[in-house]
């Protein structure tokens, strides 16, 4: 460039002046050769002859004061190389790199970066980006899986290209392997218990790169896809059973695999239901006011552990059952405080996590509590005939109720043998209509009308019959419409 020689010339002039100034002291020793002969004087005086021009050097100052040439603009230089070029991510089709700006940019600034790559061993560098990128991060796309790429980044400005920042090693284009890992929820780390018929929906998260292959087995065998639905995403596996059955119980194993790495997790699923009754119940011994019972475990425990038993007794005369022990853990018990002279039967229910068995096992024999210590001979009495036709001792009263509010009709009757009770509405037998609830306990008869409507009013009758006759009592029921307050109407 023409601008560069100018400074070089100035430097030469300055050096010349310095040489002249350095030569000026040289004439000082000239007087010493003065005593030499005259013939040789002219040559000896030659150096001093140059002294006057040296002394006249100050006369050349005016040319130095002449106007200087304009200083040329500073040259535009490339930046230094980009810093800290690293690989951020690699998958099977792309490589993501990032770097830091150059340490020295200069007055020409920075226009952008060019990313270049070539296959290992070729040396054929090609620019990946057609236009300069100003970002310090770039994704090299559309690469072939398995290729080894050499990558470099060059900073560009008006001064040209900087030295390249080159990755030290070639990059293999393939998915980076992250070891697979199953994050089993805490609730599934123990036995997972579900009642028969319930829905099962379990979500088990996992990680791994590339996308792990997920497989399931049950007790070491492939899953029955008709019973279990598995849906896998890139983050979790969903285990779903619409309606659980006891056959679904077992140990399920989930396996996630990436290349030669794998991780496994087991889920123990237990489907339970109500147990069956004890296999047998028997009376072992009877003494005083006590009866000893024994029973055996149920044949069907509901697929879970039996947690206890409930024991009930019933007087043979009444046949009403009463609970004497519940949540009892042993399989033998002593029932005490029985009434002397009475005869009892016993039955046992089994229990598990789902609840108490629907049925019970009863003793085949009865236990009679004998009277002890008194030899009593009862007198002989003429047998009294207690036969009596039905008779209502408490009649029914007319009642009124409001639509939607349940009401109850009551009366009492006596007779022997025990009368048969029949309820009627407007001379029509009610029967087993679920709207009505009929109860007869020790001669107290009640008819509950559940949430009566406008058409449930009328005449209700209770008829009692036995082999000696019959009796009827009636009342009138009025069903009123509910009154709505004026404020509510508004």
Description:
The structure is a single chain. The chain is mainly beta and 490 residues long. The chain folds into 5 domains: 5-62, no CATH class; 83-172, Immunoglobulin-like (Sandwich), CATH 2.60.40.10; 178-272, Immunoglobulins (Immunoglobulin-like, Sandwich), CATH 2.60.40.10; 281-368, Immunoglobulin-like, CATH 2.60.40.10; 388-480, Sandwich (Immunoglobulin-like), CATH 2.60.40. It is 9% helix and 43% strand. It is built from 4 helices and 36 strands. It has helices at residues 5-23, 41-55, 61-64, 486-489, and strands spanning 83-90, 95-100, 112-119, 126-127, 137-140, 148-157, 160-161, 165-166, 171-172, 178-182, 192-195, 200-209, 213-218, 221-222, 229-232, 236-241, 250-258, 261-272, 281-287, 290-295, 308-315, 321-328, 332-335, 343-352, 355-356, 361-362, 367-368, 388-394, 399-402, 407-416, 420-425, 428-429, 436-441, 444-449, 458-466, 469-480. The strands form 8 sheets. Strands 3, 4, 6, 7, 8 and 9 form a 6-stranded antiparallel β-sheet that branches. Strands 21, 22, 24, 25, 26 and 27 form a 6-stranded antiparallel β-sheet that branches. Strand 15 (229-232) and strand 16 (236-241) form a beta hairpin. The longest helix has 19 residues, at 5-23. The chain is elongated, with a radius of gyration of 57 Å. It starts with a helix and ends with a helix. Mean pLDDT is 83; it is low at 1-61. Residues 180-268, 390-474 form the Ig-like domain. Belongs to the immunoglobulin superfamily. MyBP family. Binds to myosin; probably involved in interaction with thick myofilaments in the A-band.
């Amino acid at each position: 460039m023409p601008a560069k020689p100018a400074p070089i010339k100035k430097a030469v002039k300055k050096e010349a002046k310095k040489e002249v100034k350095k030569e000026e002291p040289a004439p000082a020793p000239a007087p010493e050769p003065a005593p030499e002969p005259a013939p040789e004087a002219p040559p000896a005086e030659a150096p001093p002859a140059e002294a006057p021009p040296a002394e006249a050097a100050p006369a050349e100052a005016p040319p130095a004061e002449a106007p200087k040439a304009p200083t040329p603009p500073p040259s535009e230089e490339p930046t230094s190389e980009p810093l800290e070029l690293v690989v951020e991510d690699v998958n099977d089709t792309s490589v993501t790199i990032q770097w830091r700006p150059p340490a020295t940019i200069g007055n020409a600034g920075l226009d952008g970066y060019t990313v270049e790559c070539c296959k290992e061993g070729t040396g054929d560098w090609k620019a990946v980006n057609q236009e300069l990128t100003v970002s310090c991060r770039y994704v090299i796309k559309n690469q072939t899986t398995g290729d080894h790429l050499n990558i470099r980044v060059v900073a560009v400005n008006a001064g040209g290209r900087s030295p390249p920042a080159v990755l030290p090693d070639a990059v293999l284009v393939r998915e980076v392997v992250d070891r697979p890992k199953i994050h089993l929820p805490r609730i599934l780390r123990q036995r997972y218990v579900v009642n028969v018929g319930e829905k099962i929906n379990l979500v088990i998260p996992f990680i791994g790169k590339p996308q792990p292959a997920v497989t399931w087995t049950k007790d070491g065998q492939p899953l029955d896809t008709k019973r279990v639905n598995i849906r896998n995403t890139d983050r979790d596996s969903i285990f779903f059973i619409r309606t659980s059955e006891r056959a679904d119980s077992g140990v399920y194993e989930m396996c996630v695999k990436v290349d030669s790495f794998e991780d496994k997790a087991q889920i123990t699923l237990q489907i339970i239901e109500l147990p069956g009754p004890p296999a047998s119940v028997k009376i072992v011994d009877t003494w005083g006011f006590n009866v000893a019972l024994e029973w055996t475990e149920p044949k069907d425990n509901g697929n879970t552990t039996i947690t206890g038993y409930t024991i009930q007794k019933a007087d043979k005369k009444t046949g009403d059952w009463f609970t004497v022990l519940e949540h009892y853990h042993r399989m033998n018990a002593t029932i005490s405080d029985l009434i002397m002279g009475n005869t009892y039967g016993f039955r046992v229910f089994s229990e598990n996590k789902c609840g108490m068995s629907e049925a019970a096992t009863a003793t085949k024999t009865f236990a009679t509590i004998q009277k002890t210590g008194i030899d009593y001979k009862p007198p002989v009495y003429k047998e009294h005939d207690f036969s009596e036709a039905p008779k209502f001792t408490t009649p029914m009263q007319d009642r009124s109720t409001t639509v939607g509010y349940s009401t109850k009709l009551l009366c009492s009757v006596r007779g022997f043998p025990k009368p048969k009770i029949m309820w009627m509405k407007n001379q029509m037998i009610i029967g087993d209509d679920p709207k009505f609830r009929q109860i007869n306990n020790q001669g107290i008869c009640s008819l509950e009308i559940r949430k009566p409507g406008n058409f449930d009013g009328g005449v209700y009758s209770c008829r009692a019959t036995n082999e000696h006759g019959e009796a009827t009592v009636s009342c009138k029921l009025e069903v009123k419409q509910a009154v709505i307050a004026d404020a509510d109407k508004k």
